[in-house]
């Protein structure tokens, strides 16, 4: 899969611009604040349906304007796909696929696929478990629309259970009414757990390969998926757990167990990276996970996803930079950087 062209109108700092991309490596070079990341953000927006920089979609509209627009022409194995997004200060964004408007963002997922990485993705290693759950959710949602809708149903049931915990004054009445939410939440959690566990099982060998390659064979990565319960009779175990934890949940006002609390533990040469790895090791591990994500999406969809690398070169030494370029040369890649010396690899350079 590739992106052929991108149009930006009143998007961030762009008034009316068009960019054409080569099928291999594209390097966007420019000084800070020239709009390099804005190009990456627009591509990501059309693939995932949201920005990696802001939850306020009105922020992407150029200063002083009421509307913004982006469009991309994507080439897939068997057909081309045109995606358009319309932003407004007065209403929600609108999305069209091949000229036809969609009602739910889930319809967009899978039309095109991408893997995004920037120095900020170090949060995947260092920050809370929420970041690592997000990592799994994005991969699974891109490769399986049913997972996206399954996750949405789980979140709605969870919200209803939490609302009941917060608003119930009588615990006896709560016990009588919460059972339906316990069962619904447990059934959905089991399905989510199984898909996540399978993903980590598939992802691990690719992450190991990427880490060994980037570290020159010096580092061995291990990824462990931690959930409240294991796969055997997951739903039954979770129901019992919810019943056991009811006093605690009632006092807290929220549900303390479930797949919304899951975690990924990552080890490097047997040591937990999050707490004991150097920043350089943490950065390389995060990159290895993203390169593994690239392979998983390819394996599951049958097409190479687009690789978006925002200001990654500034964080890598020359040796790892060359290895990264070589490793990713098979996929269409868009890289942003402030300075760039022509590498041995063939690439399309866009200077801002």
What would you note in describing this structure?
It is a single chain. Helix content is 44%, strand content 22%. It has helices at 36-48, 123-126, 129-143, 145-167, 171-177, 179-214, 234-244, 246-252, 273-276, 279-301, 318-328, and strands at 2-11, 14-20, 25-29, 67-75, 80-88, 94-97, 100-101, 114-117, 221-226, 263-268, 271-272, 306-310, 333-337, 347-351. Strands 2-1-4-5-6-7 form a six-stranded antiparallel beta sheet, with helices on one face. Strand 5 (80-88) and strand 6 (94-97) form a beta hairpin. The protein is globular and about 70 Å long. It starts with a strand and ends with a strand. The model has no long low-confidence stretch (mean pLDDT 91).
